[in-house]
């Protein structure tokens, strides 16, 4: 091997070590807590290596998010398309749509270099950290996925209005993100009473839980001045109503 090829191979190996070190540290500690020095020390590389191989720490973070989120959104869309093609003009069952939405996490973890536990922690942090800020390519994928799955959920739940539907999906996704980022917390807090279920068991439980929440009856509207409420309560609700009248707020991603 020539010196040029040897140097190139060494550079590729260093870049890969940095990427793997970053993924592991981000999953363990979160994006904000990990420094460039932490990454280079974990990878056994020079402190300048991150800028050399990735231009900046931020670009490295974006690359990690793209590597893990985009394949999941791509698989979600592929699964939903296959289900819709199979069902023809019939609406999909809610559980089928939910399965297409969450199962890609299970299939993608098998292709990851991370352990199952670290993979789900990293996914939870990718979706829950950084205040929803994501690389442009990831955000565009989410927008496309939102449009497609919103239609499928709407067909599966024809009696639920769009605003209510979006909030139900939002709550369902929130529980999914929490479960991935803090999946070991329940076992620790309950001293093992929650067991050590397989991913298939956890997936089945989550789909039943999510479907039940999304199918719930729409609660009747309540008076802004319920019995026992204070004037401050009424002012708060009036402010909320005024905010709603100004138009849609910032759109969530999932």
TrEMBL record:
Q: Which InterPro entries match?
A: Homeodomain-like_sf, HTH-type_TetR-like_transc_reg, HTH_TetR, PsrA_TetR_C, Tet_transcr_reg_TetR-rel_C_sf
Q: Where is the composition biased (Basic and acidic residues)?
A: 241-254
Residue span, HTH tetR-type domain: 12-72
> Where is the stretch described as Disordered?
217-254
Task: Indicate the residues that the entry says bind DNA.
Answer: 35-54
Classification via Pfam families: TetR_C_30, TetR_N
**Signal sequence region:** none
- Is Phosphoprotein among the key words of this record? no
Query: What keywords are annotated for this sequence in UniProt?
Result: DNA-binding
Report what the protein is called. TetR/AcrR family transcriptional regulator
The source organism is Haloferula chungangensis
